[in-house]
Every structure is written in structure tokens, then in C-alpha cells.
Amino acid sequence: MIPAKFDYKPASSTEEAIALLTEYGDEAKIIAGGHSLLPLMKLRLANPEVLIDIGGINDLSFIEDKGDHIAVGALTRHRLVEQSDLLKQHIPLLAHTAGHVGDPQVRNRGTIGGSLCHGDPASDLPAVVLATRATLLITGPNGERKVEADDFFTDFWETAVAEDELLMEIQFPKFTGQEWSFQKFNRRAQDWAIVGCALQHSDNPGIGMINMGTTPVRASAAEAALKSGETNSDVAGLADDGLSPPSDIHGQEDYRRHLSKVLLGRALDNS
């Protein structure tokens, strides 16, 4: 399978990338690691006329302690997130989950920002962003703005990042010493999750669900039950409450509803 013809435009800075996005508009797509976009291009499900390569913008690859939060650059590769001692100390849920993305080849090329901007409800990292209630920093020709995780994923494969904007960094609150768990069910290690969940304990616990809707979603009813002190069994029973899991060749809706309760139960029992 071969993508349709496109022009290639490498950008050496954020400013240059935004200028190119402004110039080409909806004809252009951003590429960094390429593990989300290129498969779609090969299937002709995405046919950009221009590819803007931001993979060489080194300023967007970082993991920094900002006092009350950890800032992770959008172009930080999954492998660096997985190996970060800073994240293992303060947000171990993120470091652990990054180690379960795809396979070693994907983790060494794919970026956290690319995974989030793809907005796939079957991806692992969006669930962590929701569970930790992260904040996403976006920039464009009109300046910078911050978007909360709950407002970032807007539709199937769509996010709050506009056509002329870039995701710059993700700001994660610290959860030093707090319990957490990540659970997912898939056929093979590198496959998309049929269902999964990310659980972050805190005074305001977060539960992000994988493949339980048309966008990455949180289990709000289960979160409220956990916060109010309900039993693990009762909390797990609310894993699918208010959610609309898909039916496809990998699993029907009722199967995913059952799995969500089983996996959240495991997450609660293991944290």
C-alpha cells in the first residue's frame, strides 16, 4: 500500500512549523514519529497534500520538573517517557503506560504528542492524560492557550488542536507516593487494547478508559463512587456507566462492557 503523492516540508522551529501550517491550511498534516499518520496514509484514509515534519524541533523534547507539575514536551519519545526517573518518582502511571505502547520500535520513534493529537480512543496514553487530569499547552498564530484533558478530545480522531496550531507540552500534576494501576486486554502485546483503563488514586481520583467510546473517555460514575468510599466491587460495576463502547470484529459492546468492569476491578485490587 502506497500513500498518495504529497509535498514534504521539514520545519526547524516551532515558528516555521506554524507558518507552514498557516500557509497550507487543511491541505497539510504534521508528522513527527509517523506511527499514527503513516498507516492511515498507506490505506488512503488520510491524503494530505503537504507533510510538515517537526521531528527535528529538539526544543519540544523534554521532561522537566516545574515545581507543582511535570512538563513533558510533545516530541518526547515514548521510550524516554518510559525510562524517565523523574516520571517514575512523581507520575509512575505515565512512565509505566508508555512502556506498554506498541513495541520497542514504536516506542523509540513514536512521540507522546503524536499519540495524543491522533485522538484514537484505543490508544493507551490518552487514558493516562484523563486519569491524571493533565493540562495541554497549545500554540498557534494567535499565541498560546491551555486546554484541560477533559476538553482536548473532541470527536473520533479529532482534538482541540486547530489546523494552524501545535501541541507544545503536556503538564502533569505530581502524584508522588500515590497508588495507581494500568490494565489493558489485547490479543498480542503490540495490538491496540480491546479495552483498558488507567487508574490514578488521589483526593480526586481519576479513571481513564480505553476503547470505551468514540473518544478517549473517563469513567466519571466510577470516579465519584471511588471518591465517596464505595467498595472496589461497587466502583468496578460502574466502569461502563454512561459510556458507549463500540462493536467491531474484536469485540461486541456487551463484551467490552464486561471487560471494563473486570479490568477496573483488577486495577482497584492491585493499587
Description:
The protein is of the alpha+beta class and 271 residues long. It folds into three domains: 7-53, Uridine Diphospho-n-acetylenolpyruvylglucosamine Reductase, domain 2; 58-172, Uridine Diphospho-n-acetylenolpyruvylglucosamine Reductase, domain 3, CATH 3.30.465; 180-269, CO dehydrogenase flavoprotein, C-terminal domain (Enolase-like, domain 1, 2-Layer Sandwich), CATH 3.30.390.50. Helices cover 33% and strands 24% of the residues. It has twelve helices and 14 strands. It has helices spanning 14-24, 37-42, 78-83, 85-90, 92-98, 104-109, 112-118, 125-131, 149-152, 220-227, 232-236, 253-269, and strands at residues 7-10, 28-31, 50-53, 63-65, 69-73, 135-140, 143-148, 153-155, 158-159, 166-173, 180-185, 195-200, 206-210, 217-218. The chain has a five-stranded antiparallel sheet with strand order 4-5-10-6-7. A four-stranded antiparallel sheet has the order 11-12-13-14, with helices on both faces. It has a three-stranded parallel sheet with strand order 1-3-2, covered by helices on one side. A hairpin with a 2-residue loop joins strand 6 and strand 7 (143-148). It is globular, with a radius of gyration of 18 Å. The N and C termini lie far apart (44 Å).
